[in-house]
Design brief:
By secondary structure, this protein is of the alpha+beta class. The chain has two domains: 5-163, Metal Transport, Frataxin, Chain A (2-Layer Sandwich); 169-291, 3-Layer(aba) Sandwich (Trna Endonuclease, Chain: A, domain 1). It is 30% helix and 27% strand. The protein has helices spanning 5-13, 92-97, 101-104, 140-163, 168-186, 192-196, 241-258, 275-281, and strands at 27-28, 31-36, 47-51, 61-68, 73-80, 115-125, 128-133, 136-138, 197-199, 201-202, 205-206, 209-211, 218-224, 230-235, 265-270, 287-291. Helix 7 packs parallel to helix 8 (275-281). The protein is elongated and about 75 Å long.
Length: 303
């Protein structure tokens, strides 16, 4: 993994340039990347966060590089949002075995409740940056291994959190999924689906949404225009890519047998197209992937 973005991040932290668009990778290890040097004026602690599904820097937990400019220390942390508090986001072992930033640094400017994974002393030498630990210089490969390790722990914690139906993240994902499913149905004719597929109605009653089977409800069952072949549409919920592909394959098999359709198609709707989903779907015939985007805008209220 190329971790050269860290050097660029640290160099930019020494300037007044706050722009980040197009300067840093959009994703690393299947996690979304967000970078900030401050809003309006440079911050004392610029950061690079790696965000899992449903997470944001103001609402979630995530691995994050925090550069304390005054101290000259870059800390890779088990980060916690300061705006919205999550109950026990990181594992018990992580919390018990690692210092908080407030314990590691005397009077940190911000983010004192986050937990320290690794800390690096940063030395600027002309156009070169050195990462030091206990007086020893570290190579980028060592920093790369550290990032791999914390991301692995993060993904494990994310999986535990999402499986806990009482967790804030699980509730939020469930809400978004329900809204998305309703949105797709309500806007069917204006969507890409409406151009290719028809919804199923019987006696004026919509049957497509949450179509009943004896192995569970299909999110949306539609019919392909022109061929009348059935199309199984499933939302990638708070589950792994392998589970999603396995689930849609089961429903496609059920439709093939019980609705006597030899050419069943499958469609997975997800927020992000990841490598695991890509490889898994290669082994399942006739499955497509659609990505959804959520656009949010603010408009001034005027009478």
């Amino acid at each position: 993994m190329d971790i050269g973005f860290l050097s660029n991040f640290l160099k930019q932290s020494q300037t007044g340039n706050l722009k980040t668009k197009g300067l840093y990778p959009e994703s690393i290890l299947d996690l979304d990347v967000k970078v900030s040097f401050g809003m309006g004026t440079p911050t004392h602690v610029p950061w690079v966060s790696l965000l899992g599904p449903g997470m944001s820097t103001s609402n979630g937990y995530y691995p994050v590089y925090l550069f304390y400019k005054k101290e000259g220390i870059l800390i890779l942390t088990y980060g916690l949002s300061e705006t919205v508090k999550f109950d026990d986001p990181w594992s018990k072992e992580i919390v018990e075995q690692n210092q908080t930033i407030s314990e590691f640094l005397e009077h940190p400017f911000r983010y004192g409740d986050s937990y320290v994974f690794k800390a690096y002393e940063v030395e600027f030498h002309d156009d070169e940056i050195k990462f030091m630990s206990d007086g020893m210089e570290l190579g980028l490969n060592e920093l790369s291994k550290d990032l791999d390790a914390i991301v692995s722990e993060y993904k494990n914690c994310m999986e535990i959190t999402v499986k806990d139906e009482s967790s804030d993240l699980s509730k939020g994902l469930f809400y978004m999924e329900q809204q998305l499913e309703d949105f797709i149905i309500q806007n069917w004719d204006e969507s890409e689906f409406g151009k290719k597929y028809d919804l199923i109605e019987e006696d004026g009653v919509l049957k497509s949404q949450q179509y009943r089977t004896d192995i569970g409800p299909i999110d949306i069952l539609a019919v392909e225009k022109g061929t009348n072949n059935f199309v199984v549409i499933e939302l990638k919920r708070n589950q792994t890519s392998d589970d999603t592909v396995g689930q849609i394959a089961r429903y496609m098999g059920w439709v093939e047998e019980h609705l006597e359709c030899e050419n069943v198609k499958g469609v997975i709707v997800c927020g992000k197209y990841d490598k695991k989903l890509d490889y898994a779907r290669k082994r399942v015939k006739d499955v497509e992937v659609f990505l959804y985007e959520v656009n949010f805008s603010l408009k001034e209220y005027k009478k």
